[in-house]
Amino acid sequence: MTERGWMYSGWTHSKSTDEWYNKTKEFIDFAFSMPSVVQNGKIKCPCAKCRNYESKNRDDVELDLCHFGFKRNYTVWTAHGEGHVEITDYVDVVEANRMDTMLNDLAARAPPIEQQPIASAQAFYRMIDSVKELVHENTSHSTMSAIARLLTIKSQHNQPESCYNDALQLIHELLPNNSSLPKDFYRSKKLLEGLGMPYHKIHVCPKNCMLYYKDNKNKQKCDFCKTPRYKAGSKKIPRKVLRHLPIKDRLQRLFAHEETAKMLRSHKETPGKMVHTRDGEAWQQLDKDYPDFALDPRNQRVVVSTDGFTPYSLSAASYSCWPVFVVPLNLPPEVINRSEYIFLALVIPGPEHPGAKLNVLMQPLVDELTELWGGVQTWDAYGKENFPMKAAYLWSVHDFPAFGMVAGRSTHGKFCCYDCMSDTKAFRLENGGKACWFDCHRRFLPIGHEFRTQADAFRKDTIILDEPPRHLKGKEVETQMRAQVGNTKTYGKEHNWTHVSCFWDLPYFNKLLLRHCIDVMHNEKNVAEAIWNTCFDITDKTKDNVKARKDQAKICKRPKMNLVEKPNGKWDKPRAPFSIEGKHKVIILNWFKKLLFPDGYASNFRRGVNLKEKKLFGLKSHDYHIFIERLLPAAFRGFLPEGIWICLSELSFFYRQLCAKQLSKDTVASLEKNIVVIICKLEKIFPPGFFNPMQHLMIHLPRQARLAGPVQNTWMYRFERYILHESTKMFFYLANAFIHSLFFFDSGVLEN
């Protein structure tokens, strides 16, 4: 076999090298010259999408290879005439036995050593030895690889246990009598016990009042609402079950693979640049506060995230399921967002969302994090030694409603900002009825800035001399929270605390600089959507409605924008400067219909264009991400007054800089200054009703980037994509959550 690194080094999505084109043509010529490979004028397509499972003609194979590249690790062309491996019509033998290769590769990385691995690592290595046991003597499949694939198929296609058992029974009828394949689902799971990653069922009060856990394990009814633990009947069937998948075992398993163990200690601070979470002040402050923890680079920092979703179809009864994820942050930036490193830690059942009781349901995870802070013995395959691995919670990231449930602070009302706390100038609109942050940002400007003394550009006859709110330290926040939680007389008037978050039980939590993150994904989506709907004056969605105009007339001095009463008693709303004219809307929408993007860059905007209603339908969070960062300045240029267009372009550039994969500390400092001015400019353009919590939270995003590093670790994209792609596999039958999480994690990590 000649050197074939060109197959992967010469191909990219956008452009491939001439060498890659020429040698790919030689490969196709070679494959079509083999009579044993060509069937009905077609060969198996080796692209990353088809992976030799589909046969196609020459033109289609060429197109797929240019589009998707070669499938991974296909340096021996076994399906195209090289070697002596017989390829069937249904299964690629090289791919089918991948579990054997991965596990054997892991076993080969454990040479004779002075120290012995811990018991769990030894059990895992013993299980690896069983890979050599074949299903029967006339196959290349091992029992392990066969069961691994069967269980993965069961999870991916939502097969019930009875279906799996029936399929196994048929397979056994086709196999020799002496085959070693397990006979049912129970025995299949027992075969894999060496993976050492079980999950625990914890009974829960139906109203989420308490867990039947630890000291409450043997109780028969809830201490608070007195609801029985079990359903009525002779069998003890719990009314509600929480599933806990311990993260300790999976963090330990990362160190069982030599290459992954090496990656987990490779993080370094980059002077002047921010490319990794390690470059953020939150990580560095934890190292300063706990130098013993920082001494060993193998100690883990993790981020926690949760989000609700409906695992059933929209036509079914409403059901809200809440998975909780944990991600280790020590990994390099190029691999940290891979799905195999997103650990499912809890599956919180519905049917209703847990609300403030989420605090109760997350207690097993907090207990585990407390244990990991003390250290657990772990085998390091790279260092060939056992060491006490520690792990620390660094922050959490959620959408805004879940933020409030996890942080213990309501996200409604004028005190919903976790950074400003009670020191806010927000107020409630008289006609709109919602909390408003209009003219709350001049206080963030430098003393002496001209905007501070412009009396009529913002609120009527108002100048601002106040300083910005002070960021409270963790101990100050804890003191304030514990003093105010439960005080219903001052709730909504002086504070927004609803409960004490269980994360305050962590011994280091009050030292953290950034306990909970603002989700940049949802913030960007909400801001972009508000700008689009308001500038296009979308009925029922615009922030410039009749109520907003009435509030603006009372708060601001903008007489040209006030409502005008007609002779018939109805009100006329003058067109605002930021509102795009109807004929210009058609031009912009026609431009969207002609937009073309590279594959995978954005969705097809053309499908959502409706010229009749002058609307754009079906945009998702990532579409708004592309719109506000790339399309907004081009789409609106020439259709808005220059001052308004410049302000929106500055906002677009702000988000583009903020969401870059690499930040400089100077850029972050500049963003902290610029966003204040940009928001103040927006306040001079849009009515007070435009400024809800999301518009206010923009002002805190640069500081968050300074503390946490690049935005990729403080937004929800990876978690929402994971839920979207894996929900039907992992949660539709919650009893199978263990199976899919286990295999998805192990196969991904070992393959890497």
- Poorly predicted runs: 84-101, 103-113, 730-752
Q: Give the termini separation.
A: 24 Å
Task: Please compute the radius of gyration using only Cα atoms.
Answer: 29 Å
Global shape: globular
Say how many strands there are.
20
Our count of helices gives 27
What is the percent of helical residues? 25-40%
Task: Kindly report the spatial arrangement of strands forming the biggest sheet.
Answer: 4-3-5-9-8-7-12-15
Overall pLDDT: 86
| Domain count | 5
Classify the beta-strand content into a percent band.
5-15%
Q: Strand count, sense and closure of the main sheet?
A: 8 strands, mixed
Q: Which structural class fits the helix and strand makeup?
A: alpha+beta
Q: What would you note in describing this structure?
A:
The chain folds into five domains: 6-93, no CATH class; 99-195, no CATH class; 201-244, no CATH class; 246-406 and 730-735, no CATH class; 520-713, no CATH class. The chain starts with 5 loop residues before the first helix and ends with a helix. By secondary structure, the chain is an alpha+beta fold. Strands 4-3-5-9-8-7-12-15 form an eight-stranded mixed β-sheet.
